[in-house]
């Protein structure tokens, strides 16, 4: 992989992991559409680890408060006493559905990931999800008012992102909107919810790094991808949170639908 392709991969991963347009879909469709080198599992693992660290770096204060609140709640035998403690348990429960489905359907999902055309169809599905969320927006609940049902429903929405082309951030934000959260709260919770599942997936993918020849010429592209993914990722977290304070998800829905249609048209003509 060239340095240009490594930079492009880092930009794609950094943007699409957080902006609701599907990172998995773009990592499949962009190289195929523009006839670029398809990233291998090692490079994908490196880019995912970078975006995981981006979330942790951006939300480290929130995560620290949540972890310490959960520990303090257990120590006092009042696990749900504070908003941060409840949020920690909601994140834990909300992570279970995607972990279970991902583990039990791994072979089936791997087969789908081998066919970029499926990602294009699912990307259209992301557009539908985003539009549905905006149309049914209630937007009147804060994190303090969240309950177990909210955590479970949003967690179920996160399982949709196991399919390439379905945006994880998009589906979980919409799950939050459908449960009555305002856009900013839904987006913030979506990013916090991503930490357990993406960390687990990243560590699983990171096993590929055990077989890397650290003296090979491929090390430079991996380093470049890692740095670009992380820097762009942090920027895009901030961008989306600010965007959703004032704007809707329709722009991202239009983009997803347009890219899907363009890819499917080109694929048909081929």
Number of DSSP E strands = 0
- Number of helices in the DSSP assignment: 12
Quick one: overall form? globular
Structural class: mainly alpha
As residue ranges, the low-confidence spans are: none
Helical fraction: over 70%
Report the sheet-strand fraction: under 5%
Domain tally = 1
Biggest sheet record: none
Radius of gyration over C-alpha positions, nearest whole angstrom: 18 Å
The arrangement of helices and strands along the chain is HHHHHHHHHHHH
Q: How far is the first residue's CA from the last residue's CA?
A: 25 Å
The average pLDDT is 88
Describe the structure.
- Helix 1 runs parallel beside helix 11.
- The two termini are 25 Å apart.
- The chain has 12 helices and no strands.
- The protein has one domain (3-8, 20-269).
- By secondary structure, the protein is mainly α.
